[in-house]
């Protein structure tokens, strides 16, 4: 732990994230026109509920957020085929040369 988020802030952020998840699940979550994607939408709403939510992305790239979200979703989904994810990652990392380097576009 490097102390970016105190224990009090952590608990408040987790509570806000739980509320965001509830809003997503029950359909009451409202996307704003300024939301670039799901990550900015979750961060925006979490920060509306808890100002410490602005620390959610500290030190994390968008690609890291996407990868983390995909892993969390995959772990929570009994229907997700983990082999497919591995094959997609392998294809992206070693894909056909005619497509260029896809890693720079992810």
Written description of the protein model:
This protein has 106 residues and is mainly α. Helices cover 57% and strands 0% of the residues. It has four helices and no strands. It has helices at 7-26, 38-49, 62-76, 82-94. It starts with 6 loop residues before the first helix and ends in a 12-residue tail after the last helix. Residues 102-106 have low confidence and may be disordered.
Distance from first to last alpha carbon:
29 Å
Helix content: 55-70%
Q: Could you state the order of secondary-structure elements as H and E?
A: HHHH
What amount of the residues lies in strands? under 5%
Task: Give the overall form.
Answer: globular
In DSSP terms (H or I, runs of 4 or more residues), the helix count works out at 4
Average pLDDT works out at: 77
What's the count of strands? 0
Structural class: mainly alpha
The main sheet comes to:
none
Low-confidence segments, given as residue ranges, are: 102-106
Rg, please? 17 Å
């Amino acid at each position: 732990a490097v102390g970016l988020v105190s224990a009090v802030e952590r608990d408040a952020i987790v509570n806000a994230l739980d509320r965001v998840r509830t809003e997503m699940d029950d359909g009451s979550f409202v996307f704003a026109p300024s939301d670039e994607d799901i990550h900015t939408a979750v961060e925006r709403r979490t920060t509306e509920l808890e100002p410490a939510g602005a620390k959610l992305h500290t030190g994390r790239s968008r690609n890291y957020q996407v990868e983390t979200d995909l892993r969390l979703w995959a772990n929570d989904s009994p229907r997700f085929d983990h082999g497919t994810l591995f094959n997609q990652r392998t294809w992206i990392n070693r894909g056909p040369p005619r497509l260029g380097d896809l890693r720079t576009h992810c």
